[in-house]
From TrEMBL, chains A, D:
Reactions that this protein is recorded to catalyse: dihydroxyacetone + phosphoenolpyruvate = dihydroxyacetone phosphate + pyruvate
Name of the protein in its database record: phosphoenolpyruvate--glycerone phosphotransferase
Subunit structure: Homodimer. The dihydroxyacetone kinase complex is composed of a homodimer of DhaM, a homodimer of DhaK and the subunit DhaL.
Function description: ADP-binding subunit of the dihydroxyacetone kinase, which is responsible for the phosphoenolpyruvate (PEP)-dependent phosphorylation of dihydroxyacetone. DhaL-ADP is converted to DhaL-ATP via a phosphoryl group transfer from DhaM and transmits it to dihydroxyacetone binds to DhaK.
Record has Kinase as a keyword: yes
Source organism of the structure: Halanaerobium salsuginis
Pfam families attached to this UniProt entry: Dak2 (PF02734)
UniProtKB/TrEMBL annotation, chains B, C:
One Pfam match: Dak1
Keywords annotated in UniProt: ATP-binding, Kinase, Nucleotide-binding, Transferase
Recorded GO MF terms: ATP binding; glycerone kinase activity
Name the record gives this protein: Dihydroxyacetone kinase DhaK subunit
Matching NCBIfam families: dhaK1
GO cellular component entries: cytosol
Statement: the UniProt record of this protein carries the keyword Transferase: yes
Length: 205, 330, 330, 205
């Protein structure tokens, strides 16, 4: 399992590098134009690190991911993703994932981002992808859906969350300096969060 | 895609830091493996000042490391906050046991990364305080948002808090002094031509042949208003009006003025802007006690300028004029 | 037509001079009716140094007026030598009876206008000497032509001859010292983007998106070679090779290095160039005793840089390090 | 006569202002792109000065022209034209011009430029217009041609001189820095000299 997760991170690195220009373009419109560069730099570092090492537990893997991203992404997204993965490393086990512990993991990730960034849903940030994704898992769980369907629904919810940032006015992060003029643009961090979620789910669903 | 005098875009930060340290190898050191510049004689028996942020703002911040200003500067990638591990190394390298003040520009990324570094330092028993500079009046101030950006006014914090620390004040006093500067400093900028990140293909924004943007940030962040180009006298008057109204600065106030070039602006234009700024302030009966014209907080090769006013009392005046080895900001 | 932060193109020189003097009103004066900047305490009881030339090279030359460097600077129109009457006024304002040294960059216009001013001054009984700086190795040297251009090396003449005069040397000695600097200083520059005269519609030259020009002058004069853009390390190596071969500078020489921005070049790039320059010279076992990185002799908003080497002996080293109030060139 | 000469200077000012961009363009190719600006600035100053004053003698007029140009043109062309006109002021009388005293005036002008600039014919400067113009007057005088024909010939010789600078390599002035690459471009100073000569002759021929 740890190995499968490691491969999912490697795949995510590829996806983020492929989307470097796209994320940078989104960030140019309402930020400082470096989000793609930051994510590509951090995940390239991460891929290097993971390729050269093996990990005995999921927790160890996620801790490495967290520390590597923290010390190489920089900007706002570095500490946020870093703290999210660090929080995950504290709760993830090596048992086969069930919907309920997937939800716990998602909640920890969101809690990490919120602790660090002090933002709420609706402020046009990565949280607007992450929170709907976790909410979707919870709903699937309540409705007793199977894992496969839950993941598909989760991916769709993340995508919708990302798209919804277009109409939001940013009140956190660099885009908030724009006030109303931030409306009409998709948030770069919400987009990278969607790409990460999508890639992981594609690997497992 | 505008030309640049660089090598590999991925190496610009490490190479610029190397160049800076080589040029002053008797005064500065670079920490191995980190883009961190420290005073060669660090740690000095006094409260230490650490600042930093994304690169692309040269001479900020590494150019301000030296007696009377910073003890260390941490350089992130271009326009990207440095990471906590690098900041933590800087803190460890300059702490003499008297504590460390972090001077942070108010960007979410900077605030979070410095905060994480502070947590790491505190866990090792280092006393750390932080101040957050937010002098850009182009951004609306609100409790519910990230607040204002930190821009060129940061250099006044380096100078004045640096002088306070050099004078032997303790960490709380140095922090209080820094906060006093922050409470009294305001800036606003304009761009007439954009900048391009070394690793990006296009400039961060575009301006037409006859367009300028008021209220621009120092990372190519969009400003508040796009207009047709105007005379520099008109531009300076508008920027100063917004700055003055904000604090507000009033008749008989004594101020320091900074006319800051954004990287691609020739000195000729900065001097012409200085002329209008001083004349404008003098008309408002605001007393310009000291003027700084040059490049202090740039934005790669962006063309444009920012104006900063710092309201002075006797205490701040004395610290501003205190001895420093940083020729850039004497 | 690139944008500029100016008012009326006809007023740029008078306004920039006004701005400069307003910003340092405790130290500088402007002569009424002339774009001449003089030390406020002029005439000082010592040999006086007067320099100047066309404008557009800021901070040269008015930025170098002050204790330890120049006594007066005469600013001509943009890229145009000042006229004899203005130079004559400058000479009269600073002569203390101990004579005046004119530091002239080698351009036909400058040489003729300064010469006419010297004739006027001598007719009034003022002792005047002149030195002509010609440090640009991009131009072939020949007795039958105008010879080489004077570029950034001129600032070393201001500093060192200024220190000699401040130390109380007489006119002949100050002149001899200036000539020694001229004999030992060499420069060469590169442009990656051109400049435009404020009153012209087009830039003085054009470069394609991937083109640079080596051996460029400081007035947009064409250089020696147009090539595809290269890495800055490559560019610095080529410029230094030409400079070193010219004097020649050899193993174990001690030098001062200047990395000079042309006006639109961001400091980031100048620091990166500094890194390579120092490494290159160190490899050649040339000892870089002092490094100046910044804007010292610009060419409006031109993007590019020039490198200057000055070969030092003990005498020149001491004068270069002598006290001056000019923070720009400490 | 002094008044007619004054008007010729006013007309020359118009012509140089009209040719400002053209002269600047020529100077951009092999110099520093300011010759048109310098000449326009100086002659605009001169026109102002002349319009507001009257002159009792040709000598007084030429002295004023010289001093005004010296203190307002700058660059290389200022001292050169200034010295030329200053020299003329020393020899010009108020008698009706004959070919022989026109030649004397031309020779003085050339001598002034040469004293100041230490250049010879063939170095791609204003002298390459001025010297052929004076030589042409001399030839006309030798051949006993009338004033009118002499002036027409002189204008043509000046024009040819100007054109001949295209093929020359500059060894004086800013264009000399270009070495061989100065070949193929018409000298800006030779061009302004032609414009001055042409305008004067047009007024009198
Ligand atoms: N306080 C916050 N909470 C959550 N996400 C945030 C916050 N601030 C910024 N972000 C996210 O970070 C993204 C920007 O990241 P990036 O461009 O890498 O950093 P920076 O803004 O420092 O340049 C934004 O698009 C947003 O999604
Ligand atoms: N030594 C000289 N003798 C005669 N004419 C000269 C000399 N040097 C330059 N010139 C003339 O001056 C012209 C350039 O004048 P201008 O552009 O106004 O001055 P600058 O070269 O100082 O910018 C040249 O085209 C040339 O005709
Ligand atoms: Mg960003
Ligand atoms: Mg950033
Ligand atoms: Mg000129
Ligand atoms: Mg010229």
């Amino acid at each position: 399992m740890t190995n499968k997760l490691k491969n999912a991170f490697l795949k995510t690195a590829d996806v983020l590098v492929e989307n470097k220009d796209y994320l940078t373009e989104l960030d140019s419109a309402i930020g400082d134009g470096d989000h793609g560069i930051n994510m590509a730099r951090g995940f390239t570092k991460l891929a290097e690190k993971l390729s050269n090492n093996s990990y005995n537990s999921n927790s160890e893997l996620f801790k490495t991911v967290a520390m590597t991203l923290i010390s190489s992404v920089g900007g706002a997204s570095g500490p946020l993703y870093g703290t999210a993965f660090l929080n995950i490393s504290k709760v993830i086990t090596d048992q086969k994932a069930e919907l309920d512990n997937l939800i716990a993991i998602g909640e920890e990730a969101v809690a990490g981002v919120q602790k660090r960034g002090r933002a709420e849903a609706g402020e046009k940030t990565m949280l607007d992808t992450l929170i709907p994704a976790v909410d979707s898992l919870k709903e699937s769980h309540q409705q007793g859906l199977d894992m496969q369907t839950a993941l598909v629904n989760c991916q769709a919810a993340a995508k919708l969350g990302m798209k919804n940032t277009i109409e939001m006015q940013a009140t956190k992060g660099r885009a908030s300096y724009l006030g109303e003029r931030s409306i009409g643009h998709q948030d770069p961090g919400a987009t990278s969060s969607y790409l990460i979620i999508k890639t992981f789910i594609d690997q497992f669903a | 895609m505008n030309k640049k005098l660089i090598n590999n875009p991925d190496d610009v930060v490490s190479e610029l830091i190397e160049g800076l340290v080589l040029a002053k190898s008797d005064k500065l050191d670079k920490l191995a493996d980190y883009n961190v510049v420290v005073r060669k004689d660090a740690p000095v028996e006094k409260v230490a000042l650490v600042s930093g942020g994304g690169s692309g703002h040269e001479p900020a911040h590494a150019g301000y490391v030296g007696p009377g200003m910073l003890d260390a500067a941490v350089a992130g990638d271009v326009f990207t906050s440095p990471t906590p591990d690098a900041i933590f190394e800087a803190i460890k390298a300059v702490d003499s046991g008297k504590g460390v003040l972090l001077v942070i520009k108010n960007y979410t990324g900077d605030v979070m990364n410095f905060e994480m570094a502070a947590e790491l330092a505190e866990a090792e028993g280092i006393e750390v305080e932080q101040v957050i500079v937010n002098d850009d009046v182009a951004v609306e101030d609100s409790l519910y948002t990230t607040g204002r950006r930190g821009v060129a006014g940061t250099v006044f914090v380096h100078k004045i808090a640096g002088a306070k620390a050099a004078a032997g004040a303790d960490l709380k006093e140095v922090k209080r002094t820094a906060e006093k500067v922050i409470a009294n400093v305001r800036s606003k900028g304009v761009a007439i031509n954009p900048c391009r990140l070394p690793s990006a293909k296009e400039s961060t924004f575009k301006l037409a042949e006859d367009e300028i943007e008021m209220g621009i940030g120092i990372h190519g962040e969009p400003g508040t208003e796009r207009t047709k180009i105007k005379s520099v006298d008109q531009i300076v008057s508008e920027l100063l009006s917004d700055i003055i109204a904000d604090l507000p600065f009033t008749k008989d106030d004594k101020v320091a003025l900074m006319v800051n070039g954004m990287g691609g602006t020739p000195l000729m234009e900065l001097y012409i802007a200085t002329r209008k700024a001083i004349n404008f302030l003098t008309e408002q009966e605001i007393d310009v006690a000291k003027t700084y014209t040059g490049e202090f907080m740039t934005s790669l090769e962006m063309e444009g300028l920012s104006l900063t006013l710092l309201k002075l009392d006797n205490d701040l005046t004395e610290l501003l004029n205190a001895e420093t080895e940083i020729n850039l900001f004497k």
